[in-house]
TrEMBL record, chain A:
It comes from the Eukaryota. This is serine C-palmitoyltransferase. It comes from Cristinia sonorae. Pfam families: Aminotran_1_2. PANTHER family: CLASS II AMINOTRANSFERASE/8-AMINO-7-OXONONANOATE SYNTHASE, SERINE PALMITOYLTRANSFERASE 1.
TrEMBL record, chain B:
It comes from Cristinia sonorae. Residues 208-463, 507-600 form the Aminotransferase class I/classII large domain. This is serine C-palmitoyltransferase. CDD domains: KBL_like. One of its GO terms (biological process) is ceramide biosynthetic process. Its cofactor is pyridoxal 5'-phosphate. GO terms for molecular function: pyridoxal phosphate binding; serine C-palmitoyltransferase activity. Keywords: Acyltransferase, Endoplasmic reticulum, Lipid metabolism, Membrane, Pyridoxal phosphate, Sphingolipid metabolism, Transferase, Transmembrane, Transmembrane helix.
Length: 534, 638
């Protein structure tokens, strides 16, 4: 005890000295004399009252500061038990099982996941022995299995070993990481970039690194799961705008500004969070308009290019290249090295202030080991290949068009995706008259409530039925030698109900003919399965 | 083979270098060379040629050359040569033995000066801000509101980083190159503006690496694991392309998961591509609203992240304090959920096996006692303990002799002991299948890549040993908690297997060397008079520095010695404000000589910085070094 008093001594002296300054400053505040006089006079009348008031004040502050993790023993909800009663309660209590057993549907879905035996690629062999056309894996630019990359990887292995054995702050930053960060920044045309060791965990750390409690985030209603988690961690004030609807965005921005002016709220950090190509349906954001709005309303833009980086633009630089918008206009450009460059990890590119801030505040950057050197070099090499071979992206776009040309006009398929998106989502369209046409919600014309993630007129669909049909289609296509997959989402954990879809991941590594062939198989599977229902 | 010729010439050049060196040492024997195990690849040149380093730092070649019988297959700078079989130990919990040492208090003047230092730093910082804002407003621009944008990082929020951290920033984010093994190569840098920016000086320094999480020394560019990884890159490439549930599943994933389950001793296991994400994406699938998580107050950030995402209520108990835990359990079970008093759906207690900032182990036997009575579920994060503890390298359960199946969820990472990346969750089949389906990892996160999977498989197999016989014999051995060698049929058929991996000598050697090193450094530091935290068998050794000013000085003095040593310093907010510390992470790749080097350095610097505040009996350095084996074997510290 005496240690602490001794140790606190300098603090007390410091307090005493600051008291003087505080006092003089206090009297500069208008109205402060009134308060001082009140305290003094009340003290003279009744010294006990001052003590009481101070205690009340302290109590109020304490209640305000009390975090939800602390015990509320003194709270009014606390019931006192004696030891025997507690023992009885403990004996009585039976917890639920830790993990609920899988339902038969979940089990079937898990068992139906195809496993590739040997290397992945455009035509992998599965553990069942079948060789299939692969429209499921994210190998957009066909970098998986590239000989040059493999050769480089082996060289790196022989110089660096595999793991980095430490977080970036503690001797985990290798020259190859610095090089990849530089390569990405150069490739996109930003000042700097920072590497995370998993793409999924990138944006969920980037958002809370900047946006804190009290800050404002305006987000698209269709953002992917990783972004939803980032928003949750940030504890910021969230406002939603309709999926990929920049009119709605403008309205929300306007209403936020109006509210701020009306209530006289102080200026806080404000962000627009959205995706380049949406993970849920393959729509593409209108970047120039986004940039215009963000500049007009003075927001910062956090753009998730996890799918668009490495799949769109002349050389795969993503949305900024597609629309010819300088990447410096996007404040935080988040992308996936795993998807776009067929290696592993994610990145956030931006100004060096933005990047350096994350080196101390990006939770999953600070508290996780740096990615293996080999993956960093593979990604650098991937960038090199994309840069020097624009034909890759051209053939990717041709393949996308080839698949669209087969599937676009099929009765039982709705394609929400943008025609240039390398992920093509397929919804089942049920022609039966007993079903409301799901794609055309009756619009009431009124805007949605920005406070709620649920739009005013949500799309109507029968989740279970569509999921089942799609799963049957996936299995039918697999039996015919084409590997596709449903877009797996965690129903119940996602903020909104995501419409079940099959997500085709187009790759430049397949020939146009193969793509057409595969698309025809998918088409046949749709017709067969949906037709069977009729 | 052209590479063979270049390899030979590299060998002879290195030979010549070494010879020149030993002449000056006036030793007449021919220094032995570190023979690389793999003659198959061109990389052997890089290993030997790589070093523009003469052996001035004493790191590239062993001080005592090996005799003609001793053949070392590792590169000394990566994995040290140590043939002395007495420098081995097997650590296990001795029931009734000391579980935790009483914490030692530093003298009052140390605490006082620490508080004073912080006070001074804070005052000077504010003063500099005050003057700076008036004299050089441009350098504060990004911290201030401008053209309608609020600053990303206000001057207030960033005060600690700018005014305290920046002063010692040269001790963090040091760029390195090469293998983070026994030694590490620093890319030297210099700062013209007091750590705001750095430029590379172009030179390199090889330093003794007592910082990387390389417990079993699997960070190697040569040897059995690297050979296996090379083969896998040639077969599989580097990418898995997709998530586990959407076309990213490879046969390697299944093999690795089965092997890890067998290694841990549980029914099933799942693998995720990042250790941090293993916690942050799986905990939300275990608990949700209406459940309670009871978490040790010093749990890792990834656990907190996951708990926050889960939406469950959280309560903390005092670090490793079983009374605090029991009291809390009694309170929460009797009170039920806040306000409604409904009983909790379930309670999950999350602890770490080995705390990486404290070096102490969780009191697993006591927690399991409580578990029987209070029926909570137990989640143990073995990020640092898996591989690094226990006679078989199976983590805290193994160390305490506890059946791993008595813990509900065992989590761990491959970044540390296995020299790979990513993490795993092990438990019974039901739960793991639930997590595969409902955890975020399966549906959204990229699958682990083939080279990393191969490193995991090879290093795990190396620790376990491999049996080449038929499958039938292995089935019986599964009944024991830790099945012996893994049957070769459980490994990818193309994987090259080094003889030392097969007979298990490689794994056993690593485990025993690490155990020796850990115990030796822990005890020796205390005998020298330093204040350290943690268990004697912990491979993480925190040495307390207290004063913020001593942190950077300690690190810089270590780095600029004739034999440079790199260390990790940690301060607030990772530790309480007063107990800044330096943290050593031992490795099986260190030799006793290396530990002696560290001890000598600590001894000198400790005197200089007045760090020897311990109350333990003091031994002179020479005596400690001479009686190392005795010190390690002692049941209790003298
Ligand atoms: C207890 C604990 N859990 C999880 C992690 C995260 O592991 P990784 O670095 O593999 O992401 C760490 C690493 O620092 C840790 O110490």
């Amino acid at each position: 005890m005496s240690t602490t008093t001794a140790a606190l001594e300098p603090v007390f002296t410091f307090l005493a000295s600051t008291y003087g300054t505080l006092e003089t400053n206090f009297y500069k505040i208008p109205g402060s004399h009134v308060v001082a006089r009140y305290v003094k006079s009340s003290h003279q009348n009744d010294p006990g009252r001052t003590v009481l008031e101070i205690m009340l004040f302290i109590f109020a502050v304490r209640t305000l500061l009390q975090s939800r993790t602390r015990a509320d023993r003194s709270g009014k909800h606390f019931i006192k038990f004696d030891e025997k009663e507690i023992d009885e309660l403990v004996d009585e209590w039976t917890p639920e099982p830790l993990g609920a057993e899988l339902t038969s549907k979940e089990k079937a879905h898990l068992d139906a996941v195809p496993v590739i035996a040997g290397p992945t690629g455009p035509k992998p062999r599965l553990t069942t022995g079948k060789t299939v056309l692969n429209l499921a894996s994210y190998n957009f630019t066909g970098l998986a299995g590239n000989e040059t990359i493999n050769q480089k990887a082996v060289e790196v292995l022989r110089r660096y070993g595999l793991g980095s054995c430490g977080p970036p702050g503690f001797y985990g930053t290798q020259d190859v990481h610095i090089q990849l960060e530089k390569d990405i920044a150069d490739f996109l045309g930003t000042e700097a970039s920072i590497l995370y060791s998993q793409a999924f965990s990138t944006i969920s750390s980037v958002i809370p690194a900047f946006s804190k409690r009290g800050d404002i985030i305006v987000a698209d209603r269709g953002v992917n799961f990783a972004i939803q988690k980032g928003l949750q961690i940030s504890r910021s004030t969230i406002r939603w705008y309709d999926h990929n609807d920049l009119h709605s965005l403008e309205q929300v921005l306007e209403s936020v500004e109006k509210e701020r002016r009306k209530k006289g709220l102080p200026l806080t950090r404000r962000f627009i969070v959205t995706e380049g190509i949406f993970d849920c349906d393959g729509l593409i954001s209108d970047l120039p308009k986004l940039v215009e709005l963000k500049n007009k309303y003075k927001y910062r833009l956090i753009l998730d290019e996890s799918i668009s980086f490495g799949t769109i633009g002349r050389t795969g630089r993503g949305l900024t290249e597609l629309y010819n918008v300088p990447a410096t206009q996007v404040d935080m450009l988040v992308g996936s090295v795993a998807n776009g460059l067929a290696a592993g990890g994610g990145f956030c590119a931006g100004s060096s202030i933005v990047v350096n801030h994350q080196r101390i505040n990006g939770t999953s950057f600070v508290f996780s080991a740096a990615m293996p050197a080999m993956l960093a070099v593979a990604a650098s090499e991937g960038i090199n290949i994309l840069r020097n071979t624009p034909s890759i992206l051209t053939s990717l776009q041709e393949n996308i068009r080839a698949i669209h040309s087969v599937l676009d006009k099929v009765d039982c398929i709705t394609i929400p995706s943008h025609p240039a998106s390398a992920t093509i989502h397929l919804w089942v369209r049920l022609p039966s008259p007993t079903h409301l046409s799901p794609t055309a919600p009756v619009s009431s014309g009124k805007p949605s409530n920005p406070l709620s993630v649920i739009p005013r007129d949500p799309m109507q669909f029968d989740y279970d039925l569509e999921e089942k049909l799609l799963q049957d289609i996936v299995e039918e296509a697999l039996a015919q030698g084409v590997m596709i997959t449903r877009a797996k989402t965690l129903r119940g954990q996602e903020l909104t109900e995501v419409r079940p879809s099959i997500r085709i991941a187009v790759t430049s590594a397949l020939s146009k003919k193969d793509c057409e062939k595969a698309a025809n198989v998918v088409k046949a599977a749709f017709i067969k399965v949906v037709g069977r229902r009729r | 083979m052209s590479t063979a010729a270049s390899y030979l010439s590299a060998v002879s050049q290195a030979d010549a270098r070494a010879r020149k060196l030993s002449d000056t040492d006036s030793t007449t024997s021919t220094p032995a060379l570190s023979l690389s195990s793999s003659v198959t690849s061109s990389s052997t040149e890089t290993v030997l040629d790589d070093a523009p380093f003469e052996n001035l730092d004493g790191l590239s070649y062993p001080k005592v050359p090996p005799t003609s019988e001793q053949v070392f297959k590792t590169v000394h700078s990566e994995f040290g040569h140590c043939a002395n079989e007495s420098f081995r130990y097997t650590a296990r919990y001795q029931p009734g033995g000391q579980f935790a040492r009483p914490e030692q208090e530093p003298p009052h003047y140390v605490l006082l000066s620490t508080y004073l230092s912080y006070l001074l730093l804070i005052c000077v910082g504010h003063l500099r801000d005050f003057i700076g804002k008036r004299m050089r407003p441009s350098s504060y621009k990004h911290l201030m509101k401008q053209d309608g944008y609020m600053a990303l990082n206000s001057d207030f929020d960033s005060f600690y980083t700018r005014r305290l951290m920046l002063r010692i920033d040269d001790c963090f984010f040091q760029p390195v190159t090469g293998v983070p093994g026994r030694t590490i190569v620093l890319l030297d840098r210099s700062s013209p503006d007091y750590n705001i920016t750095y430029y590379p000086t172009g030179t390199r320094t090889r330093a003794l690496n007592i910082s990387s999480y390389n417990y079993l020394g699997f960070a190697q560019a040569t040897g059995g694991c690297a050979d296996a990884v090379e083969e896998s890159v040639r077969r599989y490439g580097v990418a898995a392309c997709g998530t586990r549930l959407e076309g990213g599943s490879l046969d390697l994933h299944l093999q690795a998961e089965a092997l890890v389950a067998r290694f841990i001793g549980t029914e099933d296991a799942l693998i995720s591509s990042m250790g941090f994400a293993t916690n942050s994406t799986i905990i939300p699938a275990l608990v949700s609203k209406g459940s309670l998580v009871i978490s040790d107050e010093l749990n890792h950030a990834s656990i907190r992240f996951g708990v926050r995402l889960s939406g469950a209520n959280v309560r903390m108990f005092k670090h490793n304090n079983m009374e605090s835990l029991e009291q809390l359990l009694r309170e929460v079970i009797s009170q039920g959920q806040p306000k409604t008093h409904r009983p909790w759906k379930k309670i999950l207690v999350i602890v770490e096996g080995l705390y990486s900032m404290e070096g102490n182990l969780c009191n697993l036997p006591a927690v399991l006692e409580l578990k029987k009575k209070y029926k909570f579920y137990l989640f143990v994060d073995e990020a640092h303990s898996i591989g690094a503890l226990g006679p078989h390298g199976r983590g805290v359960c193994d160390y305490f002799g506890i059946n791993p199946r008595s813990v509900d969820i065992l989590m761990g990472t491959f970044t540390k002991s296995f020299g790979a990346a990513g993490g795993y969750i092990a438990g019974n089949k039901n739960i793991i299948d639930r997590l595969r389906t409902s955890g975020h990892t399966g549906a959204y996160a990229e699958a682990m890549t083939p080279p990393v999977l191969t490193q995991v498989i090879a290093s795990t197999a190396s620790i376990m040993g491999i049996s080449i016989q038929d499958k039938n014999s292995s089935l019986q051995s599964q009944a024991v908690a830790y099945p012996g060698p893994v049957p070769s049929s459980a490994l990818p058929p193309w994987m090259p297997l080094a003889p030392t991996m097969i007979d298990g000598t490689d794994g056993a050697m690593r485990l025993r060397r690490l155990a020796f090193n850990a115990r030796y450094l822990n005890r020796a530091l205390r005998l020298l008079g330093f204040l350290t935290y943690g268990n004697d068998d912990s491979p993480v050794v925190p040495l307390l520095l207290f004063n913020p000013g001593k942190m950077a000085v300690f690190a810089r003095l270590m780095r600029t010695r004739a034999t440079p040593i790199v260390v990790v310093i940690v301060a607030y907010p990772a530790t309480p404000l007063v107990t800044s510390r330096v943290r050593f992470c031992l490795s099986a790749s260190h030799t006793k000589e290396d530990i002696d080097t560290v001890l000598t350095a600590c001894d000198e610097i400790g005197d200089l910085l007045d760090l020897k505040q311990g109350t333990c009996g003091r031994w002179p350095l020479e005596e400690i070094m001479a009686r190392a084996v005795e010190i390690v074997q002692m049941k209790e510290m003298p």
